[in-house]
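From: lab user (bench 3)
To: helpdesk
Subject: output format question, protein + LZUJQKHR

Hello, I'm new to running complex predictions and I'm not sure whether the block I got back is the full result or only part of it. Here's what I submitted:
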Amino acid sequence: MSQIRVAIAGASGRMGRMLIEAALKEEGVVLAAAFDRSDAPFIGRDAGEMAGVATGVLITDDAAAAIAAADCVIDFTRPEGTLAHLALARAAGKAMVIGTTGFDAAGKAAIAAAAEHVPVVFAPNMAVGVNAVFRLLEVAARILSEGYDVEVIEAHHRFKVDAPSGTALRMGEVVARELGRDLETCAIYGREGHTGERSAQTIGFSTIRGGDVVGDHTVLFAGIGERIEITHKSGSRMPYALGSMRAARFLAGRARGLYDMQDVLGLR
Ligand SMILES: NC(=O)C1=CN([C@@H]2O[C@H](COP(=O)(O)OP(=O)(O)OC[C@H]3O[C@@H](n4cnc5c(N)ncnc54)[C@H](OP(=O)(O)O)[C@@H]3O)[C@@H](O)[C@H]2O)C=CC1
Ligand SMILES: O=C(O)C1=N[C@H](C(=O)O)C[C@H](O)C1
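Helpdesk reply: Thanks, we reran it on our side. This is the complete output you should expect:
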């Protein structure tokens, strides 16, 4: 089996630690480097420490050196960090898996531009189950295209900084595309005060933040006399991390281009 050497960005973060654990477990993946910001708590410590394994790979604050040591960067940080790492990966000709959410249009355009030079997997959710739900939503939206109001409801931990989640937005995009609507113009983000009656063409989003909720997403199709709910609940971050390892393996030896988890999982 061919091997891919990965560098984990944001190594001290919730996903960074999970990604290191997954990289150490996954066949065909070698943990080549782990890096974070210079004020991060684990700089200089063994990347395997959290997983109770000595790896000899020390967490560094030298992003360029970490990226140079790998074939592929796996990045779950913040949009500004990801875009800085992407510029380094592009300059060094390295592949990249991007799980970070919350990009604006310019950030997404920068990712598409970099993918003209290096291969990139960019997806708001790497879990296999969520990607299966995206396909289920296409079927549901097709069948329930008349007379059903669409609402996307998501819940996450108190530390999450972007809303709605990237996954909720992608769910909205999938349903909107199937219904021939443009999410840019039909989305309603929360409601307050005298809103008037609901307009049939809208897709509503509701966001809950609290405690340690890993990530729950529901798409509700509400008709007169019946409701259909399609729900995914995460009990652990490991499915995101294992999905990212599949994405890194998918990129091994691949040409430049922009891919997502539907490509990685062969769901297109
Ligand atoms: N696609 C998917 O499947 C999933 C995506 N995500 C997304 O991944 C991202 C990270 O989530 P999570 O791990 O919970 O977040 P954390 O805050 O726990 O971790 C983020 C890490 O990135 C570092 N970081 C923050 N800002 C920068 C920056 N500007 N430059 C470089 N490094 C930076 C943080 O360092 P410091 O602590 O010093 O700020 C930290 O180490 C979020 O966008 C989230 O939505 C999460 C789960 C699954
Ligand atoms: O921040 C998180 O935790 C998560 N973020 C992603 C998102 O915004 O969709 C994926 C998952 O829901 C966890």
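A quick orientation on your result: The mean pLDDT is 97. Let us know if anything else is unclear.
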